[in-house]
Every structure is written in C-alpha cells, then in structure tokens.
Design goal:
Distance between the termini of chain A: 37 Å
Number of domains of chain B: 3
Helix content of chain B: 25-40%
Oligomer: heterodimer
Largest sheet of chain A: 5 strands, mixed
Largest interface: A-B, 25 and 28 residues
Structural class of chain B: alpha+beta
Distance between the termini of chain B: 115 Å
Number of domains of chain A: 2
Shape of chain B: elongated
Structural class of chain A: alpha/beta
Amino acid sequence: MKLVSIENDIETFKRQEFHRFSNKNKLHLVFNKRGVDGFLTQDFVSRGKEVFWLDYINNDFKRFVEFMDVLRKVGEYSIVKITLPARVKNNPFGRLVSTDKQLNTDQSEFIDNFNSKYRDVLPARLDNGEYFYRDKFVELIPIMTKIAAEKALPTSGGVVFRCLNIAHYDDGTPMLSITGITCPIDKVDEIDALFVNWKFKSFSWSPIHKIDVPFLSIKEILKLESYLPTDPEDGKKTAATLGYIIDKDYRTSLEKLCQYEYFHKYYPRFIRASI
Amino acid sequence: MIRNTSKYEPVNATPVKSFFVSMLTRDISLEDAMLDLLDNCVDGILRKINKAAGEKPYKGFRAEIEFKKDSFTIHDNCGGIPWSLHEYAFRMGRANNRSDNVPGSVGIYGIGMKRAIFKMGKHCLISTQSGADNYEVEIDENWLTDENQWQIPVKPCKKTMKQDGTTVYISHLLDGVADQFSDRDSFSSAFIKKVETHYAFIIHKGFEVTVNGFKVIPKPIELHFDDSKNKKAIRPFIFRTEVEGVKVFLAVGFSRPLPTKEDVAVALEETRYSSDYAGWTVLCNDRAVLYCDKSELTGWGISGVPQYHTQFIAISGIVEFESSDASKLPTTTTKRGIDASSKLYAQVKDKMIEGMKIFISYTNAWKTREKDSKAQIKLAKTISITQLKREHPTVAFSRVTKMPGGEQYKPSLPQPPKTDDDTKRISFTKKIGEIKLVAEYLFEDVDENPNKVGEACFDELLEEARK
C-alpha cells in the first residue's frame, strides 16, 4: 500500500521531505495548497481499500466537510481516522460549576457563532454552555463526527462508516482521534465480530478511551515490569509496588498508574545501550 | 349501424386504498409528513385556547417526537381529538359540508395525519384523550390492503393520560423510512433544523418541541429598529393590510450590520452558514411556509432587484398571513411552500420588492464605508417580529392606494456623504507567506487581517514620508 502525506504548508512540506524515510516508492509526499480538499479534487483516485488519517491542528467546520468528502470517495473497507483538537478556540467558558448559571454576553455570542458555524453537524442548536465547559467539548466532537459520517454515508446508500475506536489524549493540546471503517451495512456484524474482544473498541461511538500515560523513569519502568500485566488494571498493584504517589494526590496518582497498566505494552521504549 | 347501448353500465369510481397508501405519500417528504403531525398538535392547542391571548398563548403545550430504526412516536399534551371530530380526523379527505373549522389551522384537505402515517409504516396505534373521550384507533397492514374494509376499529383506552393529548405510534416502518431513521443523529439534526425554521414563531409563542430528547431552540429573526426621534435612521419597511379575511403584516430591514469585503469572503469560504438568516420568511398562521428564501419566489433577481449575493447578507424580511379560513392562505397542499399563483401573494410580493429595494440601495451606497454603516446599524436595537408589531405604532404610516391596499411605513435611511471627497481605494495582492511575514513584523501575529496589514504598511510609510 502506498503512503501519501499531504501538506498545504510549503515549509512543513520541505521538513517532511527532509525526514522522509529511505523507501521513496512507498511514501509519496504531496504538496497541495488546498490541502486535503485540493488533493481529493485533483489527485485522488480510489483504488479500493485505503487508509486515511486526517490529522488536523484545528477543528474548523471545513475539517468536517473534508472528512465527509473522504468518506464519500474511499472504497469499501477503508480505514479513516480523523484527529481534531478537543477544545474550541477563544472559548470563554471555564470549569463547569452549575448549568443554571446565567450566560454572559461573551458566552452567548460564542454559542451563537458556534451554532451558526457548525449547525450542519450539530444535533440541535445548543443554547447553554453545557458542551463548552472544560473537558466537555470532547463529548461533543464524536456526536458531530457521527452526524457528518451519517450524512456522507447514509444507510440508504448501503455502505456505512462503522466507528471502531475513539481516543482522547493530550500532547500539549487535548486531542481526539476517531477511527472507523467504511463497510457494507450487511457486513457490520462481521466487522464487529473481528473487534469484539478488543478492549479499545468504541462501537456505537462510545466509550471515549482516555490516554493519559504517566512519564515514568527508566528505573520505575524496570521495577514495574515484572508486575505487569495486572488484573484488574486499576493501578492499585503498581501503586503498592512503587510505594509513593507520582502525582498531586493519591487518587490522581492511582488514575495515572491505572493508565500505565492499561497502555504500557503499547508504549515501546527505545534505549541506546553499549554492549 | 345499430348501437349496443346495453353494455354501458355505470363505471366504478370508488377510490382504491393504494391511492391513499402509496400514491399520495409520494408528494411529500418524510420530514414534511412528520411536520404534518406536528401541525395536528398545534390544531389541538388552537381548539383549546384563545390565540390572541398574550405573547405566549402556546405556553405549557408540548410535543415529543422519538424515532428509531423500527418505530416512530409523537406524543403531545395538546388537548386530544374529541370524539365529535373523529370523522374529520380519521376519514380520508374532508367533506364539503364540514363547518367546524379550527381557527388558525393550516389544514384544508383532511389528509395530513393519514398521509403521514402511510408515509412511514404499515402499523399505527393512535391513542387520544380529550376530556371524557379516551379512545384508541389501530390501523394495521390488513386494513391497508383490504379494499372492502373502510371502517377503522376503535376501542376505549385502558390507560388514562395525565393531560389531554394524543400519541401516535407507528411501526413496521417502510424500508426507506427505516433507513433514514437508522441514521438517527443526522436525520434528527436535519429534522430539528426544519422544526426550528417552520415552527420558530410558534415555539417563540410558548410551544415546546423535543426530538429524540433534544429541545428545539429556534433563533428568532430580528430586525434593527431605531426607536429614537431621528428622521433618518435604521428602521424596517413595514406594510400591513387585510384582504378578504386575510391579515397581512410585512417587515423588511437589516438583521445585522453590513458585511465587509472580508466578511463576504469568509461567508463564501465557509459556505452558506452566515447567510442563514438573510432572505424572506413567509408565515401562514404562524407556520413558516418559506424560510429565509433568496429566490425569485420572494422577489430576488426580478423587477430590478439583483440576484441574492452574500453582500446582501444583512437583509431579512418577514411576511405574515393570518386567516381563520386556511383555504384563503397562499400555501401549497403540503403547507411548506407558497402558492405562487395566488393573487394576494403576487400583490404582496410587489410590496416585498419595494421594501427590499430600499435596503439594497442602502447596501450599495455604503459599500466601502461598512464601518460607518455598522455604527449606524448598531445604534438601532434588534427586535423580534412580535416586538415590531408592538413598536410600529410609533412610526408614521401612509395609506397605500394601489392593490392590495392597506398602509405602510417607508423608512428614511441615512445616506453617505457625497463622494466628492479626496479618497481612493487601494487594493493589491501579495503572497500569503509574505503577508504573514509582514503581519508578524508589524503585529506579532501571523494571522492578522491582511487588510489591516496593508493599511498599517501604508500608514507607517505615510508617517515616514511626512517627516
């Protein structure tokens, strides 16, 4: 399968070119000023199963339009992943205290603009800040993406987008990644059967799997190595093994270690060693 | 030639079930069929209340719509169907001699509810309670196909509802409908949008609608109205009349400040969203039959009015037709469109065009001076159509002698100063990367508006040159 990386910023494109791995036939770098939209219109021809990762740094409405375009253009059994920031720009909402709180002018104006901009992928007009308070927006994105997916591939068309996984992580900016597969509607059960035992599955667009793995020192990793995997993966065993908390309080520390128990084997660590 | 007259017997002209079940349903979309059921809820309210009473006559009444891939339910507390109306409610079509009109209804043909049911599924249970009347009507697949069976069984309800109302439960959905309901979130989102537009005014008058648990919250169309004593000020054009039992109220004006060149570019880039509230909304007995229309049907692109363009994003108009006799309203049979052949509508459309031209002319006159215009428009508060109806007595109306008669208020909008000034527009194009570089240099923000960047460059050099 040929890999295609699309960039709309010439400097990023040059940087990608510099970092390109040696097998040039496999990785095809494309510079298109109009980004994904331009690539889909001008360069893309579906050759069957494809893998698309729409890795965005903003969640403008246009991103949802591009996601819909990709779904419409790829072949059956293609994997499509969309990554979006899990926060909104210039959001005047802070931490949720009470939903009864009266909105101030900035907040009302913000909601108004948001409704106007994203109305096509919103479940309804949002009239309070419920989804905009800290940590709540992450719950709205899958709903918006689901609406976009259903619009792009309606059931009546025979091929649907089956959501496989939703992951929420923070790499400086809180991000949300949604991965799914386009498949004929009568094959959904077969697809589900393939992933039924997968602990990260998000069929029916839930749950949102939070990834917040703590940074541990090499010494800590080596110490915990022999106690993993744990059952249940609740952080208690690793917490007891370390014997001290690794975050602000015991509860947070336990949550982090629970994350570590859950994800440790997906985080390979490469160490340079002289022999 | 001997003619054989004996073979000519009276022909059978009785309707066949499939005409109602499969044919009539083709003329209506699924969303419109669902809206027909909502119309019935409103008719139920109108049977119970005095519509003229207060600003929120529909307060306390609600309809809950719920659908999934195998069923549809609408439940309301809008008074139910009195047994005395059973013939109208369940008979296919409306008898000529029927005298019990629902004032304020939009139903004329007596087909809405039945057509909606047949559009969706093959089995339906209607439970209703109105005072002492509490009964159930069940329509099943056998009834739909049995040509000899025109009676629908009715039985008393086993349960008593907390409030008088009706529940319509439809199952055995048709394939196409089940498919659309399977895309629950997107269909629900699109349908809510339709309810938001078509029921905006009824909801503002207190009616509550929920769809799959989401409350429908329409955004009202509001117009800028300067309530100062200034003669030249931003106010809407208003026209009102009454023709053969139909009351007409029309208002057109600005719903937002004029867009700048950048606003227009952004609106085009972000497709239709910013234009959501521009154009004409036509109401018939409170239901929007056209919403923010920007076509010839409402005067755009004809009689000297330009085609709609994003630069006219600020112009919004509303026309209200009200009549106790729904047959006099200029609507189509589906109740979601205008009957363009209506004489009354044609006359009112002339007034729409007259009003619209005032604001198009203002928009053109203030082009390139949007900032000044913005200040004027912002001085005028925004008010809803209900408030406008209350406020408009403060302006002076003049009589309209031409058909359809009535009276109107023609605003005198501020004019820009004469253009014999010494300014000229400078416009040029540069590479994005270079603009960003200069933006960073001047504003420490690469995303600064390119116009501001260009203007700042000029101002800085001008200052230099003046030294």
